[in-house]
Design a protein that fits this description.
The protein is an alpha/beta fold. The longest helix has 19 residues, at 191-209. α3 (48-58) runs parallel beside α5 (76-88). The chain folds into two domains: 8-139, 3-Layer(aba) Sandwich (Rossmann fold); 172-209, no CATH class. It contains eight helices and seven strands. Helices cover 40% and strands 12% of the residues. It has helices spanning 18-30, 38-41, 48-58, 68-72, 76-88, 125-139, 172-175, 191-209; strands spanning 8-12, 34-36, 61-66, 98-102, 118-119, 179-180, 186-187. The radius of gyration is 25 Å and the shape is globular. The protein starts with 7 loop residues before the first strand and ends with a helix.
């Protein structure tokens, strides 16, 4: 008697959301499912342009992670979403296959609005998600672990990356916020001045070494 295989779930996401998506990967693994995440599944030397579409094609369900990163990002993630939509069109209308999953408050793309989504930033998101994945497993004659009655998962948080001072635009008040000291040198507390001071120091060092 062959052992039932796990449900194969492809995790479609923008690269900036990978830390949050990795938490979902670990959670689904703990539920005896087979999630596909490029950072975990791709082997050194494999061509991702070949392996990712193959994994999409062989998946039983696709989770499309939505955030302000993914809905505005150009590139391969948009190809993945289009491929997922094309494959979903091949499914009977009552089948669960494509599941949009919002990582934060964001606009759902028009092409995905006909699918009910799950908000991963809300409490008990795992129960709603597992209900859908278990329904999909039942449609395929597979079994999937169900969360316990008292099991709760904290909301999935998308990490926020602060801009470094060098990458932030410098306002005009910052550029002109100087005062002349009695030594005749310019002093300021702005980002612009710190960078110009550093450049001046480097030029001085170069002059001394000549």
């Amino acid at each position: 008697m062959t052992e039932p295989r796990p449900l194969k779930v492809f995790l479609c996401h923008a690269s900036a959301d990978k830390p949050a998506v990795r938490k979902l990967y670990r959670y689904l693994r703990s539920k005896s499912m087979d999630p596909w995440l490029d950072a975990e599944k791709l082997l050194p030397g494999q061509k991702w342009q070949i392996e990712i579409p193959k994994a999409l094609y062989n998946s039983d369900a696709i989770l499309v992670f939505l955030s302000r990163n993914s809905i505005t990002k150009e590139g391969f993630v948009q190809k993945e979403i289009k491929f997922a939509l094309d494959k979903a069109m091949e499914m009977p209308e009552d089948r669960i296959f494509l599941i949009p999953a919002r990582l934060e408050e964001c606009e759902v793309p028009e092409s995905l609005k006909s699918y009910q989504w799950v908000d991963l930033f809300e409490k008990n998101w795992n129960r709603r998600l597992m209900q859908s994945l278990n329904e999909r497993a039942a449609q395929l004659g597979l079994t999937a672990s169900r969360p316990g009655a008292d099991e709760t998962q904290p909301p999935v948080i998308v990490p926020k990356f602060e801009e470094s001072p060098a990458s932030k635009p410098i306002s005009e008040p910052e550029k002109t916020h100087y005062r002349k000291s009695h030594y005749g040198s310019w002093e300021a507390g702005s980002v612009f001045q710190r960078w110009t001071s550093l450049l001046s120091c480097l030029l001085d060092c170069k002059t001394e070494r000549v």
